[in-house]
Write a structure and sequence with these properties.
The complex is a heterodimer of chains A (386) and B (81). With 386 residues, chain A is of the alpha+beta class. Chain A contains five helices and 26 strands. In chain A, strand 14 and strand 15 form a beta hairpin. The relative contact order of chain A is 0.10. Classes of the chains: A alpha+beta (386), B mainly alpha (81).
Chain lengths: 386, 81
């Protein structure tokens, strides 16, 4: 790691930030989330706290601009320079500017705002570029799934050399929190921390999918949302997030290439982008190539390595080629034959870090597609801090 | 400038490299005459950049160096002013 010349730092640990404007590339709520999480990367390992203000001048002013944008460092159009930030100090010091000519996203297409913002805020706090290729402060952008993001040790050492360590280190495993009563009626705030009932060992999930680095666990009329960067799990009624969706979602999967998730119930399925249901849905599953004998899907998962989606129904599975938009000719095949050890039926499945996690009844199996073997048997609720 | 293999877009690459080194490695273009030195300022800055990124330090604008220059990156200079 390295620090700026003269080692400029903030003299207070309570810093403020203000988002001066938004990029049209992303929903404002997604920008807010990306920025909040990017600050949390640093507050987790230092005594620093970051509070958002909506008026006046914050320590760290955040803006999007293209080309010449009010400092002496004009941006250069798409790609090239993505963003820059200034070392701690008065006036422009600490401010972070993002090139509006880039395509900003909450996913893997374009440039992930969370990843770039976390890097820029490192500058805002006094870190210069690191020569460690694995460091967040390495100057070139490379995508990593935000859900799997952990601040590399080089960056931890660099920032703690300036501000010291956090008095309350963040635990490395999710912690269950006390249940609270849900009272809000808005979509974005109607949630409650994890209810201990989710730790019931007999719980069987209806469906599970990833969503932009998070993991959603569906059960009856609600879903649990696991946000790895804040290490908490919250419960949301399906009806408040997606009023037009039914309860009892039976299968779900994410296609990160298109930044879409698909939810299935009965013979119908819906496509969503983030939390927005796309027009012209629901559609019938026969559009995907299923025979009429298939009445519903039990589970689905998209494999990035092959660009195929596996649909599990009864004791069989179908392989759908997302690139060609057709069902593979060899489908259906018996689950038992190609996924030995996971049982005859699948209730839910998702992919994480190249491994498949199958939920069958009360059991969860970690499955390696390359070796075609179950590598671990886990508790159904292992992802939820139980 | 150091010798580089002749390619069709050599001029464009050199221009890109020059802009890059000016922006991130303080390569000066202040009008002072280039004196006879072992390495040109361009080559020295190129070596600085190659060393920072762990590339082979040749002082020449090779394909790996160019590839690194084309990568999307943060606009803060690697060398403190």
């Amino acid at each position: 790691y390295s620090h700026f010349g003269g080692r400029p730092t903030w003299r207070t640990t309570s810093l403020t930030y203000r988002i001066l404007g938004y990029t049209p590339d992303m929903a404002e709520a997604d920008v807010d989330t990306a920025i909040r999480r990017a600050f949390k990367v640093w507050s987790d390992v230092t005594p620093l706290t970051f509070s958002r203000i909506y008026e006046g001048t914050a320590d760290i002013q955040i803006s999007f601009g293209a080309g010449v944008h009010g400092d002496f460092y004009p941006f250069d159009g798409p790609h090239g320079t993505l963003a820059h930030a200034f070392a701690p100090g008065n006036s422009i010091g600490g401010d972070a500017h993002f090139d509006e000519d880039e395509t900003w996203t909450a996913g893997s297409a374009g440039y992930n705002l969370f990843l770039v913002a976390a890097h820029e805020f490192g500058h805002s706090l006094g870190l210069s570029h690191s020569g460690d290729r694995s460091a967040l402060m390495y100057p070139t952008y490379s995508y990593i799934d935000p859900a799997r993001f952990r601040l590399p040790q080089d960056d931890v050492d660099g920032i703690q050399a300036l501000y010291g360590a956090s008095p309350n280190p963040v635990p490395t495993t999710p912690q269950a929190t006390t249940p609270t009563t849900t009272v809000s009626t808005t979509t974005t705030t109607t949630s409650s921390p994890i209810n201990p009932s989710i730790c019931d060992p007999t719980l069987v999930f209806d469906a599970i999918t990833t969503l932009r680095g998070e993991i959603l666990f569906f059960k009856d009329s609600s879903f649990w949302r696991r946000v790895p960067t804040i290490k908490e799990v919250y419960n949301y009624p399906i009806s408040t997030s997606w009023p037009s969706l039914p309860s009892g979602i039976q299968a779900a999967y994410e296609n990160p290439e298109t930044d879409q998730i698909f939810l299935f119930k009965g013979s119908k399925y819906w496509a969503l982008q983030g939390f927005d249901i796309l027009p012209n849905y629901p559609k019938n599953i026969d559009k995907l190539g299923f025979p009429r004998t298939v009445k519903h899907i039990n589970a689905a998962v998209y494999l990035q390595s092959t660009q195929k989606t596996y649909f599990f129904a009864g004791e069989q599975y179908w392989s759908y080629d997302e690139a060609r938009k057709t069902m593979d000719k060899e489908s259906p095949r018996r689950i038992e034959d190609d996924f030995p050890g996971i049982g005859k039926k699948v209730h839910a499945v998702f992919e994480d870090n190249g491994l498949l996690y199958f939920f069958s009844g009360h059991k969860q199996f970690e499955f390696n597609m390359k070796s075609k073997k179950v590598t671990r048997t886990l508790k159904n609720t292992s992802w939820l801090g139980c | 400038f150091p010798a580089v293999p002749a390619t069709e877009d050599r001029g464009e690459n050199e221009q890109l490299a020059e802009e890059y080194l000016k922006k991130f490695y303080n390569l000066n273009e202040d009008g002072t005459p280039i004196t006879r030195k072992k390495h040109s300022p361009f080559s020295e800055k190129l070596q600085e950049m190659q060393a920072f990124f762990g590339l082979e330090v040749t002082g020449k604008l090779d394909s790996n160096t160019l590839e690194m220059m084309h990568k999307p990156r943060c606009g803060v200079a690697d060398v403190a002013e």
